[in-house]
Amino acid sequence: MKYLHACLQETFRIHQNTSDGLPRMSPGAIVDGKYIRRGVICQISHFAAARNPRYFADPLEYRPQRWLPSDHPEYDLKYQNDDPKAFLPFNQGPRMCPGSAIAWAQTKLYLAKVLWTFDIEAVPGQDISFDRDFYIYTMWNKPQFWVKFVPVARGEDRP
Known about the structure:
By secondary structure, the protein is of the alpha+beta class. It has a domain at 2-22 and 37-117. The chain has four helices and eight strands. It has helices at 2-14, 46-50, 100-117, 130-133, and strands spanning 24-25, 29-31, 34-36, 41-42, 118-122, 135-136, 140-141, 147-151. The chain has a two-stranded antiparallel ribbon with strand order 1-4. A two-stranded antiparallel ribbon has the order 2-3. A two-stranded antiparallel ribbon has the order 5-8. A hairpin with a 2-residue loop joins strand 2 (29-31) and strand 3. The longest helix is centred in the C-terminal third of the chain and has 18 residues, at 100-117.
């Protein structure tokens, strides 16, 4: 389950459910050498942070290994300096989603059951590129992408 969790974390890092964090009103502070006056409404772009090489090695590549514990056989030292705090799919602090633990558990259970039961294949003839065809404003704009669920052959059902 550790590798499945790492795959989900990496999926959420690259394909967040929203583009921006919750807005905050600045108390008046210096951020990265620039003064943000009191009362200015600020928010982070999760989309930009998740793709920033300052926080993640190979930021545009899908690399679940970055989320594995260092003692896992698939762990890659290349990602030891990644900053997991730049990835907060359920926010943090007092505004953190109270259902995040349930969401992780349900997502892992559902995905494990689907992948145990089916092989998932793209329907041929589709030309879709994430960078070209997906857009994010406040929410994702996604083109249709058809897949075929093929029951997994087990035991006597194998060819």
